[in-house]
């Protein structure tokens, strides 16, 4: 396999399973936008077919997007991806998420290009575990976006590459004071988000309210039942927005972000709240506790403890000056530790690492006692 010449940019395939609104898609968009084109030329390859709104948003950056063909046939889709990687003359594959990683591994069986695979969530069930094993077995470099994720999955050899956030998208100005304490939940409804804990916490808060009455705004799909279960509580108004890709607008109108998850990778919305200079009250699930500095940029409480979540919200509801200071410190931390420029540099190190490790992997085919995983690789700091 040829190594790319150092006098031209690296041709990169960003392989994803879908291009709908979501955390992985926001990371793909951010990487595509912020890579230094003198060093990396990205092309997004979606194995789940065309999804026009998000695909067009990426194309508007001057980045190509290819969408899978071959219908539901596994073999035909893998062959399409293999042909697409060859047509684009790709140097390095970067798959994001386990399904995309498995597709990339299957399509790469013959060409065996350097392959970086990013594991972004725990996933559950035998099917997801099997898919992850395929991706892990064939990737040259594994990355995770949170230490807790690596620890939970036993990925001691994975490189840490935290998510990025586009700081300039977010307005750090405080919200207008309308006499209410404005709480935002932005996310989907799924077991890992543990929305029953959020519902119980809001009921606790309504019984022992903050100085000002509260408003809970729910932004995301599948949250109507949450809104109904909280209707009519004293000292609490519930606003159900539904899906909305413009989370920055709702952060600008909020005093604090809340997250009640029991499992997380590195939640984009936590980084986005920090970029918007909003404190975050979250459970100590996954990367949330790594991004938030407790009592500095927000509050971290134990998972599955509604009274603790309610107490942290109520305390910040009574301390507007502390909220503002926490927000300022959160924005400074997001700028320093989670900018997309930093994320792109970390990923570029993994791409270059994959080029070297791919060569050692090829040696393993000739020396069966040689373990390519024993070759050290770089990790982000």
Give an overview in words.
By secondary structure, this protein is of the alpha/beta class. It folds into 2 domains: 10-164 and 340-374, Glycogen Phosphorylase B (Rossmann fold); 167-337, 3-Layer(aba) Sandwich (Rossmann fold), CATH 3.40.50.2000. The protein has 14 helices and 13 strands. It has helices at 23-34, 52-59, 74-87, 98-107, 126-138, 147-153, 195-207, 224-230, 247-252, 268-275, 288-291, 306-317, 320-337, 340-364; strands at 10-16, 40-46, 64-67, 92-96, 115-119, 141-144, 159-160, 181-186, 214-219, 236-242, 256-259, 280-283, 298-301. Strands 3-2-1-4-5-6-7 form a 7-stranded parallel β-sheet, sandwiched between helices. Strands 10-9-8-11-12-13 form a 6-stranded parallel β-sheet, with helices on both faces. Helix 5 links the parallel strand 5 (115-119) and strand 6 (141-144). The radius of gyration is 22 Å and the shape is elongated. The two termini are 30 Å apart.
List keywords for this structure.
single chain; 381 residues; alpha/beta; Rossmann fold; 6-stranded parallel sheet
Give the total of beta strands. Answer: 13
Largest sheet: 7 strands, parallel
Order of helices and strands: EHEHEHEHEHEHEEHEHEHEHEHEHHH
* Shape verdict: elongated
Give, in spatial order, the strands making up the sheet with the most strands.
3-2-1-4-5-6-7
Helix coverage percent: 40-55%
Rg from C-alpha positions? 22 Å
Q: How many structural domains can be distinguished in the coordinates? A: 2
Please report which band the strand proportion falls in: under 5%, 5-15%, 15-25%, 25-35%, 35-45% or over 45%: 15-25%
What would CATH call the architecture of the largest domain? 3-Layer(aba) Sandwich
Q: What is the average per-residue confidence, as pLDDT, rounded to a whole number?
A: 89
Uncertain segments of ≥5 residues (pLDDT<50)? Answer: 367-373
The CATH topology assignment of the largest domain is Rossmann fold
Q: Helix count, per DSSP?
A: 14
Structural class: alpha/beta
First-residue to last-residue Cα separation: 30 Å
């Amino acid at each position: 396999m040829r190594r790319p010449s150092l006098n031209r940019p690296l041709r990169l395939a960003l392989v994803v399973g879908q291009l709908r609104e979501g955390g992985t898609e926001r990371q793909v968009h951010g990487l595509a936008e912020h890579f230094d084109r003198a060093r990396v030329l990205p092309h997004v390859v979606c194995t789940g077919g065309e999804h026009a709104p998000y695909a067009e948003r990426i194309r508007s950056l001057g980045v190509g997007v290819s969408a899978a063909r071959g219908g539901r046939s596994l073999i035909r889709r893998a062959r399409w991806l293999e042909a697409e990687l060859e047509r684009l003359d790709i140097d390095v594959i970067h798959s994001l998420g386990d399904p995309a990683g498995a597709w990339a591994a299957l399509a790469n069986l013959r060409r065996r290009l350097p392959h970086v695979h990013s594991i972004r969530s725990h996933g559950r069930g035998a099917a997801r575990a099997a898919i992850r094993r395929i991706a892990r077995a064939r990737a040259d470099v594994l990355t995770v976006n949170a230490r807790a994720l690596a620890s939970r999955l036993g990925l001691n050899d994975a490189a840490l590459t935290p998510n990025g956030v586009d700081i300039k998208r977010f307005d750090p100005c405080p919200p207008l004071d309308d006499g209410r304490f404005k709480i935002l939940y932005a996310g989907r409804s799924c077991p890992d988000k543990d929305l029953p804990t959020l519902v119980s916490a809001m009921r606790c808060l309504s019984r022992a309210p903050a100085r000002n009455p509260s408003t809970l705004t729910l932004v995301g799909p599948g949250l109507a039942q949450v809104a109904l279960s909280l209707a009519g509580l004293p000292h609490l108004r519930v606003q159900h927005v539904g899906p909305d890709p413009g989370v920055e607008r709702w952060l600008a109108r909020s005093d604090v972000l809340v997250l009640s998850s029991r499992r997380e990778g590195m939640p984009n919305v936590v980084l986005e709240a920090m970029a918007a200079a909003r404190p975050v009250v979250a459970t100590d699930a996954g990367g949330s506790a790594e991004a938030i500095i407790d009592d500095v940029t927000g509050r971290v409480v134990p998972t599955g403890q509604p009274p603790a979540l309610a107490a942290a919200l109520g305390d910040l509801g009574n301390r507007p000056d502390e909220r503002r200071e926490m927000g300022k410190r959160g924005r400074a931390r997001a700028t320093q530790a989670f900018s997309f420029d930093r994320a792109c540099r970390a990923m570029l190190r993994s791409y270059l690492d994959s080029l070297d490790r791919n060569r050692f992997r090829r040696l393993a085919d000739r020396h069966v006692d040689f373990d390519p995983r024993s070759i050290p690789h770089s990790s982000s700091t």
